[in-house]
Write a structure and sequence with these properties.
By secondary structure, the protein is mainly α. 42% of the residues lie in helices and 3% in strands. It has helices at residues 6-15, 20-52, 78-85, 119-130, 142-153, 182-187; strands at residues 54-56, 65-67. A two-stranded antiparallel sheet has the order 1-2. A hairpin with an 8-residue loop joins strand 1 (54-56) and strand 2 (65-67).
Length: 193
Amino acid sequence: LSSIESSTLLQHLKDKGYTKTDAKKQLILFKRLIFRTFWENVLNSINMCWNRGVELHVIGHSEKKLFYPCIALHLGDGPAQKEICGIMKGNCNYGCTFCEHNTLSNELYNPLLTQNRNFQNIKTLCKESDKVMFKRKRFLLPQERIIKEQLEQKSIYPYYNSFFDSPMGIKSNIFTCTPPDVLHTICAGIMKN
């Protein structure tokens, strides 16, 4: 991928009839799909171990023990966390991995009023949006357009994230396993539940 120059790909898309803005969006999508494909393959191996278990020898025990490994935590800086969670980068309304506090507004953060990200809702919307990923906006059906707009309002990329199906424990998901950003660390405490 690094050997393919972005300008060459952009020119190819322009030759195919894309505007400069649409071509840039398609290039970003292309790179994100490569990222997703890589992680799908890694996570498939982890999922197999989570579902079947792995026999390990534990020091001090004569027989092997069965373990079910999962991803307990995802650590990274802000941009890396957003990339793994599927949250839009840059100036977006809801930049936090944990909740839907409008980070562009001047409102004070209130942990009692701010909702956590609804994982099941986001997962369902992304699954539906993934089906029409390559449709140009003007060709979307009304329901497809609504789904993409809902994801955009939530600052979520409009395609299925391979981390949605990763083993993060029984009651956890990619949003709850990604530590809160500074806003939550300072204002609400690191772990409130």
